[in-house]
Design a protein that fits this description.
242 residues; alpha/beta; Rossmann fold; homodimer; globular; hydrolase activity, acting on ester bonds (chains A, B); 11 helices; 5-stranded parallel sheet
Chain lengths: 242, 242
């Protein structure tokens, strides 16, 4: 009945319903207007995510197509070949091609769906090191699993693909680094988001959704103050027989 | 594809995806296992909510029926006839009958759906007064819109209906009052929930869902650590052709 907004991505999407999470905030903001569908897959890169496309966005579907889809990958693609995340690494050119395939597939399903590309956030090496030590102590790898520079090249190409395909995008990598102390303010372990980091994603995404008319969508049923308490059936008949 | 958990209720449900909200926490806890569907209608009582039943839970539906539904009304039904919320008031006997109708309707749609009844939270008169003053200043009504005692009778009957129908229930009214200082710890305006109040609903609901097997539900796709990086197609073929 309500339009769907699908959040498709890696752990930063999967965790977006934690306290202060950007996904839950989107659901709250558009409550009674859209349904937010969480499709976050922790640890996934774009290569693995391609296998999900046909299942999450079937070409032939009984239901309505999503009104919007966020595609938020790259943090794992950008894992270094020399680090502990090497199995997640996807070369930059393949990352770009995978993003193109995702967008094309969603367009094949539903040409009207608003697709938003989100870049990975920046990487804070100190935060990554501290996290590894807190998890593995002296056994923590001394080699970085990601660097800010390499992740930046993925972010840059994500924005370029959005431009090439005529889509809105959120350059989280750049946006976050505009704030002094972004390393601790926005990142909890040098990669994942604090509540303030979640607020950045939320703020940027809501701008795009509102510009596309999402805040103007109708409520699914009357506001309680509009219900005729003497004859409530009348208030609902108008809406529900539509 | 995934089982649905529908949260049906008034503002305390509608607001459950705010930061620290109980609904978002349920979505986070069972992420990649269930989809949480938010159907909260601020200001609604059970009388008005009955008009939504056929739309939210159609008797004939293409899609899968919900795995679980929470029914969380009563805070508005219990508004006093003498107060500012009088138009929301529903007599106790009608509230009981309306709860029965809701449960019966959901059972008619899908006999296997787990239905959980949740009572309204307790009422803190001082919190309500302060809230009214903060909103309306000197024009705030001096008459209470709700009392803890009256709301308690609705909570008691909600639990009785759950027992009569063989359903699990959460007696939020009683549970919260077991904690000293519940008035400020759990309630933000004498009625709605603080993050700690949300945590009470979440904790009680997860106990019920886990007992019904929800934590044992399978993930929708392989965990990233289980993906064969040399041959990822194999990891997905096993799951996706099922």
């Amino acid at each position: 009945m309500r339009p769907h907004v699908v959040l498709f991505g890696d752990s930063i999407t999967q965790q977006s319903f934690r306290s202060g999470g950007w996904g839950a905030s989107v659901a709250d903001t558009y409550s009674r207007k859209v349904d937010v569908v969480l499709r976050g897959y922790g640890g996934y890169n774009t290569r693995w995510a391609l296998f999900l496309l046909n299942h999450l966005f079937p070409l032939v579907s009984e239901g309505p197509s999503p009104a919007a889809v966020t595609i938020f990958f790259g943090a794992n693609d950008a894992a270094l070949l020399e680090g502990t995340g090497k199995r997640q690494h996807v070369p930059l050119e393949e990352y770009k091609e995978n993003l193109r395939k995702m967008v094309q597939h969603i367009r094949d399903c539903s040409p009207k769906t608003l697709v938003v590309l989100i870049t990975p956030p920046p990487i804070d090496l100190d935060g990554r090191r501290e996290y590894a030590r807190s998890m593995y102590g002296d056994k923590a790898s001394k080699v970085a699993d990601r660097t800010n520079e390499v992740t930046g090249t993925y972010a840059e190409q994500c924005v370029a693909i959005a431009k090439e395909l005529g889509l809105p995008s959120i350059n989280l990598w750049s946006k976050m680094q505009e704030t002094n102390g972004w390393q601790r303010t926005f990142l909890s372990d040098g990669l994942h988001l604090t509540p303030k980091g979640n607020a950045v994603v939320f703020g940027e995404l809501v701008k795009i959704l509102d510009e596309a008319g999402f805040s103007d969508l109708p409520y699914d049923f009357p506001q309680h103050s509009e219900i005729d308490e003497e004859n409530p059936a009348r208030s609902f008949t108008q809406v529900c027989t539509a």
